[in-house]
Fold each of these.
Amino acid sequence: MNFLDILGGALGEMLSPTTAAYALAALGLAVHFGYSGLLNFGQAGFMAVGAYAFAVSTLQWHVPFIVGLLIAVVCAVIFAFILGIPTLRLRADYLAIVTIAAAEILRYIVTTNKLTPLTGSANGLAAFEGGFFDLNPFPPGTYPLGMSNRDFFVRVVGWVVVALACLVVWLLMRSPWGRVLKGIREDENAVRSLGKNVYAYKMQALVIGGVLGALAGMVFTLPRGAVQPANYGTELTFFLYTCLLLGGMATILGPVIGAMIFWAVLSLTQGILYGLIESGTVTFINTVQAGQLRYILVGVALMLLMIFRPQGVLGNKKELAFA
Amino acid sequence: MVAALFAVTVSMLLAAPAAEAAPTPSPAPTGSQQNYPNSISGLLRNNGVPLKGVKITAKGNGFEGSATSAANGSWSIGVPTQGTYTVELDTGTLPQGVKLAEGEKNPREVSFSNTSNVSTLFVFGQGIVVQKVDIFSQVPERLVAGLSFGLLLALAAVGLSLIFGTTGLTNFAHGEMVTLGAVLVFGLSAAGLPFWICIILALIGGGLWGYLQDAALWRPLRQRGTGLVPMMIVSIGLALAVRYIILYNFGGATQQLPYSQSPQVNFGSFAVSQNTLVSLAVSLVVLLGVAFLLLRTRVGKATRAVADNPALAAASGIDVDNVIRIVWTVGGVLAALGGILWAYYRPGVTFDMGQQILLLIFAGVTLGGLGTVFGALVGSLIVGVLVELSTLWLDADLKYVGALAIMIIVLLFRPQGILGRRERVG
């Protein structure tokens, strides 16, 4: 077992496009849950909307990358409206149940065999990323950490998008608009009594966080060059919540750091467990069970975080979406 | 879904050892089929008689494998990767006088959908037409199946609704309470215990789990004054942890409970499997019992009082904590029973079977009105019947969509649910 390799793997994992996608989607959740108090359990649905809207429009109508991107964003906005109109006037737990149900409906629809020509059913879609990689300005060669120019491009784009999104959310949240949102989180009725249209503010927050989710879906799917419905189940949303709560829910950098810690810890535990099993130190579990063990850890970590440190690594205990 | 997500995540993280372990495809791996992680399998029976020695081949993804059916008619072909395969039954190897039923596709396409095993069924016999579209026999069949399904959902939903009513917690770990019942029955019967003892022990186990959960986790959290939203997220963490603990011990395969194959009972124009009817009767009796307890006994009245207004109930001398403890225990028993029935209804036991119906349980509870017990019953029945009837015009893989969509639409017009009281919920 080589600790340097395991450590290197964990460091590489922190910068991977998947981590960037998790960070972006968790940032969207921070806008929903951390800043506005909206309990969105359908972030995986928003990611699926982004990924599928982009993939389908690219494969069906052969639109250029930018147009595909715009279609993905527009679809996410529409999805946010569909979710928001019936539920934003209701209590938080209704929004939770409706968003999780809507995300699952979406997943069932893209999985159904009847739509195979359009969505590829359970096998999903592939080979739609060409337009994106045609934009690659980096010449072929070897880049830091042994990356190819493709890997390097994906990482640069992914993290630039994360940085831009952080900047936008930061600017939004220190604006008067952001203060109203935080006010809604703390006491909806107080804000309503000041003459603000709470419903409209919540809807705007839902749309912005959803668009971040859709972008995350694209960052998630582009390096793979494939989109499959099984990746967008409810567990993805729960992992995103773990990232968000790990970092701190009402912070800008919290979701990003949370996603990095999440993947680094998953990678470290996997590396160490596999190393122990291969070297014969641990014989009572096999590698499959070691993989499962890590998800037991995720669940326990989510519970413990929520109970003992709900503000996360970066958060301020005074600023919580709930008392 | 979970297995696939897990597989994807693992392969994303580091080099996937499972993929490396898979041997390179060889042209005809008759001897070493079990070494592959995925398999295509089925059971060949003609009129109840197993067919032995029938050759079946699977082709696809650069792989070709074949198998011959065993004495009990079962066959299994191990394949290296998930994907779409062409499966062909060699009709030349069928016994004399046995023919595939009319309309049976041979060869046919078989694809994996998030499981490591797919089964495909070849139907034999002359005069049997596959998939008869006879609406007059379909509707009553679906209706009975839907009622049975709705009642088993109601078993879990009543517990969920009682817990919500008394504590305000939206319990995302309820699906795992459902799974636990079925997994316990499977584990105990695999250990050789008689069937009825297994059922009783599994129900006790379910109740114990509910009790322990409340005593060790939820009661301390309530006493700390933890908010409802954090508790909901804690329940999500608990659900994840328990689901993977079950997977860790139980494995990812689908297992069958004893007596999972039952004869069809004929009702003239339509037929329903005996298990469906037994399940219907059992859940009906249990639900009537719960209704009686709630309406006629002291504990039941106390429970309804706590669900209505905990502070007022406490002020009038009801031991609220005791009521909540009973609710968790009874909810655990009901969920375990629902899980056992669900295992017969699907049929099969898997580690994520509870999670699969968790949203339908929520849909039932929300449709009926959050926190109302009889609303949960009515809502679950509607969801169950709707799910089954929707297969008449929707594809089977979309059957849960209708119920979830109806829930969202009902929330638009009647957010308090069918039996819920009109109150501000926003």
Note: The first strand of chain A starts at residue 125 and ends at 126.
Amino acid sequence: MEAKEIIFYLLAALTLGSGLLAVTARKIFRAAIFLLFSLIGIAGFYFWLQYEFIAAVQIVVYVGGIVVLIIFSIFLTQQAGTDLPNPPLRRIIFSALAALFGLIFSWMLISQHPFKPGAESPVAVSVANIGSMMLNVNDTGYALPFELVSILLLAAMVGCIVIAIKSRTETAN
Amino acid sequence: MEQIGLQHILFVSISLFFIGVYGFLTRRNLITMLMSVELILNSVNLNFIAFNKYLWAGRLDGVFFAIFIIAIAACEAAVAIAIIINLYRSHKSIDVESAAEMKY
């Protein structure tokens, strides 16, 4: 067994184990920390696949941004230290059955499908290549989605402030 | 032991996807449901990157899909947390069962 395989199985164990703990932990704060480790495991997979830029984006946006946002919202909305209630046994059984069925079904599909690699020669996934394709206006470029995402980010930012702001009449009551 | 290829990564990714689905179905707290959605989005991203690496190494399309999904997931998380904080202010609870005014 090579080092590459050992690292793959370690990353898979880290990602799946902490993902499973993130959806079953009784304390919401622990669930957020397990989610953090699961996202770090995914970033490790990107490093393992040698997509370093995506791994860096994953760490910056997810680990540095979204998980911190989730932890802050836990502090704002949850009484610290209270456990989440146990879901009813019936719901656990049926959800687990649904998830297991979907897992087995898609695993059968994947294991029978012959994946054929494309014949093109590999392109380096460097920041220079990604940047020049991102702002390219040819039909292989991504300038239009880039602009759309920037407008979406602006709209989401304005929307967040409008939704979460305390209105004057509400504070007067 | 066979060489690690696309199917191993796809197995990790669909396992993570259905872990997220399980969490989404069992949890009743809005923040934990949002965390399950983040797991699902991450498994999809891993899929895109693996397909780009193993099947379409000559193009960068999978990388761009992953980048745009990450950006949209950030928007979604921010808006969802704003809504959750607003809901907590009016209901003093973020359980999905407590927000039932528009149910009937």
Note: Chain B has a mean pLDDT of 88.
